[in-house]
């Protein structure tokens, strides 16, 4: 995403910070900015988080490594290891670990994938999210307060971004049509070269992910697995 903007934006970047929320209302501007965000299928995100940890990276890995759990047995890079890790993260014991990474009251309501998405959806999320703890009201609060106008799915990122480039993002790009065409061409090449091996996950674990990350399915419309 950042590379696309660097190559195609009509004006130079003002600031680049990874995984940081908008901290003040002043940064929102007065209608002269377009906010959009990416989302990812929760199970796919968990798999990415797990294999990132298998390389010794990430806050979740470091938190588990400092805990009483045998992190080497969990992060062995196998389907069985992923299943053990996911079972830990999606059950009460693992929630205690995750709660060290974000507010515990939020950890009771939803999982880390949802938290990361919501954290980037609002101005000053650290103040807002611990107060929004009603499952029935959270979707409405999200719709009312969110910054972004568009949600791009990582599973169809090039197509979604191409459509945005031809739509609301067009005034911010040097050559919207050319940018969209290059995105679609790049998507075709990537699909033809994809060699990712799928990971088998039990229906029990899929159900756990669905319950923990309910927001991603109920509000963002990701299809359920079981």
Protein described:
A two-stranded parallel ribbon has the order 1-2. It has helices at 2-8, 42-54, 59-65, 71-74, 79-89, 92-99, 104-109, 112-119, 125-128, 138-145, 157-165, 176-193, 203-212, 214-218, and strands at residues 36-39, 150-153. The protein is mainly alpha-helical.
Summarize the structure.
The chain has helices at 2-8, 42-54, 59-65, 71-74, 79-89, 92-99, 104-109, 112-119, 125-128, 138-145, 157-165, 176-193, 203-212, 214-218, and strands at residues 36-39, 150-153. With 226 residues, the protein is mainly alpha-helical. It has one domain (2-8, 28-218).
What labels would you give this structure?
226 residues, two-stranded parallel sheet, mainly alpha
Number of strands: 2
- Helices, by number, come to 14
| Count of discrete structural domains | 1
Percent range for β-strand residues: under 5%
Present the secondary structure layout.
Layout: H1 2-8, E1 36-39, H2 42-54, H3 59-65, H4 71-74, H5 79-89, H6 92-99, H7 104-109, H8 112-119, H9 125-128, H10 138-145, E2 150-153, H11 157-165, H12 176-193, H13 203-212, H14 214-218
Helix pairs in contact: 2-3, 11-12
